[in-house]
Amino acid sequence: MSRRHTRSSSRTRSIREVFQDPHPLLKASFIMAGIALFIMGTGILWVALTPIPALNSFDSRKVAQSTKLYDRTGKTVLYDLNHDVKRNVVPLADISPYLQQATISIEDSDFYKHGGISFTGIARSIYKDITQLSFAQGGSTITQQVVKNTILSGQKSITRKVQEWILAIKFEQRYTKEEILEFYFNVAPYGGTMYGAEVASRTFFGKSAKDLDIAEAAYMAAIPQLPTYYSPYGNNRASLDVRKNLVLKRMKELGYITDEQYQQAKDEVVVFSRQQNNTILAPHFVFYIEQYLENKYGSDVATQGLNVLTTIDADLQHQAETTVNQYALINEKKFNASNAALVAIDPKTGQILAMVGSRDYFDKNIDGNYNIALAERQPGSSFKPFVYAAALQKGYTPLTSVFDLPTQFSTTCSPSDNFNGTAPCYAPGNYDGKFRGPMTFTTALAQSINVPAVKAMYLTGIPNVLTLAKDMGISTLGKPSDYGLSLALGAAEVRLLDLVGAYGAFANDGKLNTPTGILRITDKTGKTLEEYKEDTKQVIAPEIAHGISSMLSNNQARQPEYPPVNPFTFPGYDVAAKTGTTNESRDAWTVGYTPSIAIGVWAGNNDNTPMVKEIAGYIVAPMWHEVMNFALNKYPNEVFPEPPAIADSAPAALRGIYTDGSSMHDILYWVNKNNPMGGGSSVGDAQYAYWEYPIGNWIAGGAQLAPTVQGGTSTPAVGIDGTDIGGQ
Known about the structure:
Structural class: alpha+beta
Strand content: 5-15%
Low-confidence stretches: 52-64, 133-138, 706-728
Helix content: 40-55%
CATH superfamily of the domain at 75-301: Biosynthetic peptidoglycan transglycosylase-like
CATH topology of the domain at 75-301: Penicillin binding protein transpeptidase fold
Mean pLDDT: 86
Largest sheet: 5 strands, mixed
Number of helices: 25
Strand order of the largest sheet: 2-1-3-11-12
């Protein structure tokens, strides 16, 4: 007994000593455990003391936390996202059963089974949050969404998500399922300033929410997940249609509707009412930014009280909107071009200074709410600068000589079949049906001649052109196998915003600044959530950018296609510009820049119907000229750096010479196409005979050979363009 007592006493002393003088690691563990318990206790206390508001308190809280968008000066409010907030509170009995079923089907199919949270949804959202490091996933039940839309802020964090789970359980303990559904349908965001199903139903369909049919209810249920993105008045109607069909599919799977009802609702053509006009400046830009905010800060961003300082220059925006509207109305009468769009960017920062997505955002006749600046359209010849830039990268020069003659490019057809453009043959022509003989890259680009551009594409290689264009910010391009040589003429799809941003890299010594619309965002307490930071990438060498700027600003090279005074000339200013017109005249573009600003415009019809056949220089260039002229008087007057000189030792064909005096050949005869500066030849290339064939016909028609000696020198002093080529 004595020994047992001794061992027990010894053990007691050991435990006491451990607590009196613990090991440092154990001490740290105690401290961490204490902190964790304190945080947990504080969180539980916060949740316990957090009041659950009554339905009639929603309006006052939402209005008090309104998110506002400002121009770049912070003095002009572009839009108050919660201005004139619209909400009609109605009982659940006044909500169509179809809308209730549709919403439950797509948002929370276990709504009547869970106690506020869905553990499978939580597991899925946690997995995605961890793998994507975003803490932005949903997994939210309808109850959680009510909590988010009535109690919590839009901040996304682990702490906030835990608060949401606990409050959802508390909400379920206090309210019935029917009351929670009623809350949901009175606070759910449906886009813009619309909150609640009743006001959304009246806005979208001109009827009460209790009168919605199945198809209309499916559309309504599809929207709250991303109300700006899925807005029927925005650019993503096709995505909304897909999600509506998903809602119908879930309703059928859950037994809410029959197969017959499903098919009938899926096939129903639902017409949305015209969007109402309200106080808003730069509407296309505003909703472009709102969608960004919604994606990052949540669908309730309008009520989070954020202050968003945007990049918009309010004066330039006003001038752009006025000019686009004025010329679009003129073009509709003259050229059957009912719509137009414009984007202006600061090349040195990528900041969007103006964005006009249509001639009138609220003009339903042209789908004016659709933002053409973000639409994918074929660029026509406005894509050619990327082809020539890739050629310069490969070693060709602005004075590289090629022949603009009828040429067959398909090796499955005969070289003599050089006027046959029917597949599988490919023999492109020019917009006026004429061919001009020998030209330099500069002249061909300035006059937008097609055959030289296709030859430049072949010499450079489709993969190289695609890589360069993608590096410069053209985000919509596919893989090389998706395209043929017609890519040189714009047989792809681009966005006006991306195209202007890419031209901005030419203006900025080859450095790309990705287009951005935000300078700073602060929350309701004044805390900065994000701020513009320079993110510049050198996407092409400065000398390549300088070469393209020189080619696009060479007014002499534009003649005789344009007179000396034309929409692209501004006396006293360095301005580079390029037009583009697509097949059947469905799109017309003009994009141009100075070192201080890049501006691009588009004209056409939203439904892709053709315009009157005319070159973009007459359809859209005057509109571009007027806005550029306004900008030149507002922004610094800077000059383009000089392009690099062309060495006298460069092959003659790279200095504008296409003959040795006794024979005349196209570029493949004079250089190795894969190493043009290294000399050699590409005789035997698959295209060689095809490019040589029309030259023989051209000579037989009376063409004269240029002299090999002029003014006592071994090479001509004057090239094809009439420009001095010695040492340039």
